[in-house]
Amino acid sequence: MSKIERILIVGAGMAGLALAISLRRQGLNPDIVERQHGWSVPGAGIYLVGNAMRALGSLRLADEALQDGSVIRTQTILDDRGRQLAVIDTASVWAKCGPCVGIRRAELQKSLVNALGPADIQFSTTVSALDTYGAAAAVQFSNGTERMYDLVVGADGVRSSIRTLAFGGAQPRYCGQVSWRFLVQCPPSVSGWTLFAGHHGVFLFIPVGQGQAYCYADAAVAEPLDDPLEGRLERLRSRFASYATPVPEALAELRTSDQIHFGAIEDILQEPWGADKVLLIGDAAHATSPNMASGAAMAFEDALVLSKLIVSGQDVAKVTNEYTNQRIARIRWLHEQTRQRDRIRNLPPLVRNLMTRFLAKSAYRANYAPLVEEL
Ligand SMILES: Cc1cc2nc3c(=O)[nH]c(=O)nc-3n(C[C@H](O)[C@H](O)[C@H](O)COP(=O)(O)OP(=O)(O)OC[C@H]3O[C@@H](n4cnc5c(N)ncnc54)[C@H](O)[C@@H]3O)c2cc1C
């Protein structure tokens, strides 16, 4: 019998939804609040590496992802003229674990929401105050109501307000890259994860099923720059105009700037994650740059580990300790590897491409090795 029954999940992104699904399947019924006014899907597509698919398997959602998305067996890295630098056999790296899959974020979100079932999510709602000193956490919501909880889970992303309320000032760190994301028809020449690395940034295609590809472009810039909607498409076309086919063709297919999501890349590693009936999961606790495409995997794994501990019958302090013990080494490893890859990504293009040619394959295997292992 769980000692933690009154649970609040703040944020219905991948981490919050996965936790809610898992808890509901084990007989608990958490409250969920979400700041957005309804379901909106940030970003265009997402690359799920093998351990994300393994975790989706535990949530009984892997088959759906395979059906909706596209299995990725290789990662091919080319220079901006289309000359091959490296081909990585991702299928063999993840063989013990599960396939890598490209999928549209809308499809992934749809299957998480369906799996959640008829839960009562309070949209347009956030937490305005948190008092954790009593026997239970007293939460004041932005709609003026107040409730008591055994556990408050901050699953509210990289700019988490639960993190600020519970732990104070840690702010996300700018990773030295800005990115653009959108969907296009999948070019016939693209059959796997395909990246063009040149002087003006990298441009990545990932097939995401139903004849579409997710495009992710980024550029290394010392200070975060803004790229206003007005003229964004023209600027992006001009940035990548000299790149090999099918990069300019993909950009030519876009009609309006609002098809392109733009943002600065940030990371954070908050420690501790838990204290006094509050616990952080997903990006709220440990966002990384997308360089290792592992945010979804970590969010799902967090949710699986935490839900199992919550129903184990231990009290909140023990759950918090055990959760941290089970997750911290993996998360620190991922952060270190991602930051190292970010540093290489931000090197002058000639040096970066040379390193890619000689080191990409062995680095890929080494970077992911501990994450291939079971939780
Ligand atoms: C450009 C980019 C590309 C990426 N590509 C990949 C990839 O290919 N593969 C991969 O695995 N990962 C990728 N990631 C990372 C991945 O998107 C995140 O790790 C993942 O979304 C984390 O899920 P989350 O639920 O923790 O946070 P989020 O997805 O940020 O969800 C947080 C939720 O909380 C809500 N919220 C925020 N504040 C509040 C509040 N105060 N009150 C209530 N609700 C609130 C938000 O509206 C949102 O719904 C990428 C990230 C970026 C930025």
Task: Tell me what you see in this structure.
The protein has a seven-stranded mixed β-sheet with strand order 6-5-14-15-16-13-17, sandwiched between helices. It has a domain at 7-71 and 99-172 and 267-344: FAD/NAD(P)-binding domain. The protein has helices at 14-25, 50-58, 62-68, 90-93, 105-116, 161-167, 232-239, 247-253, 283-286, 295-310, 316-345, 349-372; strands at residues 7-10, 31-33, 45-48, 70-72, 74-79, 84-89, 100-104, 121-122, 127-131, 137-141, 146-149, 151-154, 173-185, 193-198, 201-209, 212-220, 261-267, 274-275, 278-280. Strand 5 and strand 6 form a beta hairpin. Helices cover 37% and strands 27% of the residues. It is of the alpha/beta class. The model has no long low-confidence stretch (mean pLDDT 95). Bound molecules: flavin-adenine dinucleotide. Residues 10-16, 33-36, 43, 46-47, 52, 126, 155-157, 161, 179, 181, 282-284, 290, 293-297, 299 line the site of flavin-adenine dinucleotide (FAD).
